[in-house]
Amino acid sequence: MSIQVFRPKFEVDECLDEIRKCLEKGWTGMGFKTVEFEEAWKKYTGLSFAYYVNSATAGLYLAVEILKQEHGWQDGDEIISTPLTFISTNHAIHRSGMKVVFADIDDTMCLSPKSVEEHITEKTRAIMFVGIGGNIGHYYDIVNLCQTHNLTLILDAAHMSGTRVNGIIPGKEAEAVIYSYQAVKNLPTADSGMLCFRNGKLDEIARKIGWLGINKDTYTRSTNSGNYKWRYNVEYVGDKSHGNSIMAAIGLVQLRYLDRDNAYRRQIANWYRERLKKYPEQIKLVTIPKECESSTHLFQIIVDHRDELILALNAKNIAPGVHYADNTIYPMYQYAQGTCPQATYFSEHVLSLPMHMELTYDDVQYICDEVIKFVKQ
Ligand SMILES: *Cc1c(COP(=O)(O)O)cnc(C)c1O
Q: Is the CATH number 3.60.15.10 carried by domain 3-256?
């Protein structure tokens, strides 16, 4: 068996117990466990609102669409974003009819505040920040930029479940925070996510648009009585974005173990760093601000001859990953090609070493041996 870059770990018996409750109650859809999970997530993060969705992608799409609609942003208005992310971050902007303006990244792999500032124009409405690998990067400088220039902040926190800064979960500064509970993220379900608006009115709108525009969900209706409980109005032409109780049941269990799991991820990252920091010429490590306790979704290194290193590791049954290809290579974002040299450089040199709960100290030593052997040639 090879060592994969990711491998989800589930608390199987507890998950099955929670799922059993859904099946016995006869309620597997929206409501019941989704409500419980939303409450648990608000308590865990300290965020005011949480709408459980079927993926972070659905959450991002809703966030941008609703902010655009409620703020009166126009087609062609701009949102500044990063080229080094999973494509759904930028598709959410593009699909809404707004323009993705790419700013460059810094050695935290996240947006560089300096580059962001240089890209602000009269048409800029928002900044989309992605905490790559769970890193907070220079998020608080971006928060300040948003305040100075009166811009809306959206936080793609897909990697950030459990990240803390000075002991506190970040996100209260953003208008919308979106988490992913996709199978290989830090809080794995199978597919789902959370959309956390700061404003309760937007949360309410999201709940309607996320269910085709219908203004009363069936769970609320089922707990009300009276002759007219089946009547509802349809206020928007919406999507079907909400999560379901089976996924939420898994999420509720996994949330109990999120901090424990992230602590072990940080332990793995420390083992990697101990070994790899001895080769600063050949192996660059990602900068994590010292006040950031990262969820450590990824452990990334920057090396020359990255593609050959992948092949060398594959030959030793190690399967690393790459996060991410510079998004400006894709046809719909090609207009920005060459505008973010750091992102282009990193996308060609960055490598994600295996990072998951099944890794042992010996696995990490074995992986480091092979990486070091390669870079010393
Ligand atoms: C995984 C990911 C997403 C999308 O998450 P899904 O839940 O799979 O839709 C969005 N942004 C980033 C940065 C991601 O890594």
A: no
